Amino acid sequence: MSAPSPSRRGAARHSELFDALVELLLTEGFAHLTLDDLAARLRCSKRTLYALAGSKEQLVRAAVVHFFEQATSRVEAAVAARTDPEQRLAAYLRAVADELAAASPRFMDDLAAFPPAAEVYARNTEAAARRVGELIGEGVDAGVFRAVPVSFAAEVITVTMVAIQQRRIATATGLGDAEAYEALASLLLNGLTRPAPAAHPQDEGQVGSA
C-alpha cells in the first residue's frame, strides 16, 4: 500500500488538532487563554495554529463549528439506530444532552459572551429545534404521539431550546444545558406519549369468582 499523501496527512493532523482544541476549550473555557497558552497546551507552534485560523477569535469559532459538526453526526447516528418514533425522539434529545455534558460551565459562559461562537450555537439550536419538530411529526403521523399541532409544539420547543442556548434557563433554574435537555426530553415524552388503553373488566378477571 502506498503511504498517505501529504495533503491527507495534513488534513488528518488538522482534524486531530481541532479535536484536541475542542476538548481543551470544553474543559477550561477560552476567554482567559491566549494563543501562546493554546499552543503550549496543544504542544504545537503558534504558526501551526495560524495555519488553522488567522486569530484566536477565528480559531475559537472554528473549534466551536467543529464541535457542533461532530456532535450533530453522533446525535443523528443515535437517532438512525432506532425505528420507533418515541425512541427516536428520546434518542435525539438525550444524545444532545450527552454531547453538551462534556462542556464545562465556564465554556458555556464564555460561549454565550463571545458573539461569533454564540451565533454558531444559536444556528445549531435552531436546526435542532426543527429536527425535534420533524421527529414529533413522525410520531404524530404514526399514531404514537397525541395528535398535537406539530407547528405549535415545534414553536414551544424552539423557545425552550433558545432559552437554554442563551443561558436564561441556567440563570433561572440553575440547570446546566445538558441537564435542561434531559428535563426537556422527560417533559416532552411524558406529554406526547399516548396513554395505554384502559383495561376492560372482562380482561381483569372476576374477584371472588368460583
CATH homologous superfamily of the domain at 63-192 - what is it? Tetracycline Repressor, domain 2
Q: What is the highest CATH level, the class of the domain at 63-192?
A: Mainly Alpha
| Major sheet attributes | none
Helical content band: over 70%
CATH fold topology of the domain at 63-192: Tetracycline Repressor, domain 2
Helix count equals 11
Number of strands: 0
Structural class: mainly alpha
- How confident is the prediction overall: mean pLDDT? 86
Strand content: under 5%
- Could you state the order of secondary-structure elements as H and E? HHHHHHHHHHH
Distance between the termini: 80 Å
| Secondary-structure arrangement, i.e. CATH architecture of the domain at 63-192 | Orthogonal Bundle
Q: Quick one: overall form? A: elongated
Uncertain segments: 206-210
Overall radius of gyration:
22 Å
Protein name: TetR family transcriptional regulator
Domain HTH tetR-type: 11-71
DNA-binding region: 34-53
InterPro entries: Homeodomain-like_sf (IPR009057), HTH-type_TetR-like_transc_reg (IPR050109), HTH_TetR (IPR001647), Tet_transcr_reg_TetR-rel_C_sf (IPR036271)
Q: Overview of this structure, please?
A:
The chain has 210 residues and is mostly helical. The chain has a domain at 63-192: Tetracycline Repressor, domain 2 (Orthogonal Bundle), CATH 1.10.357. Helices cover 75% and strands 0% of the residues. The protein has eleven helices and no strands. It has helices at 6-28, 35-42, 46-52, 56-80, 85-101, 105-113, 115-141, 150-165, 168-173, 177-192, 201-204. Helix 5 (85-101) packs antiparallel against helix 7 (115-141). The termini are far apart.
